Request: fold
Amino acid sequence: MSKRINILQLEPDAYKAIMVLENYLTNSGIKKTHWELIKIRASQINGCAYCLDMHSREARNHGETEQRIYVLNAWRDTSFFTEEEKAILALTEEVTQISHGGVSDQTYQQAASVLDEHYLAKVIMAITVINAWNRISISTRMEPKRAEA
Reply:
């Protein structure tokens, strides 16, 4: 792959601006499990290898199981996820694929029925932030480092 720009080096203030929102969300009371599931699922949809690698490792560090990470792209076909998590994952998919018809009333109402308004707002912002990171990573071809065996 050809080398592309490094936005962090070229425009550190832009990176810092996104990090302010990232740090807010990290400290906002959003559950670590929810935050990592959002990051992994959006990154799967967007095909962001860099973010998938990073957030899968972070999720494991926060206690997420390998099994749930492995089946996350087929979450509807398992009983591994709570009703809250299912609502968050459905919302993550629709916000991430917003050009495919937006967020359906059904998905929004399901999320609103299991999350309070403040938490729902945080979830939507979390989905938005990871999609921004995915787009930065993919457009600049950031690659994960290969783990030592």
Observations:
- The chain has a mean pLDDT of 95.
- Residues 12-139 form a domain with the AhpD-like fold (CATH 1.20.1290.10).
- Residues 33 and 64 are 7 Å apart (CA to CA).
- The helical segments are 7-10, 12-26, 32-46, 49-61, 66-70, 83-96, 105-114, 117-139.
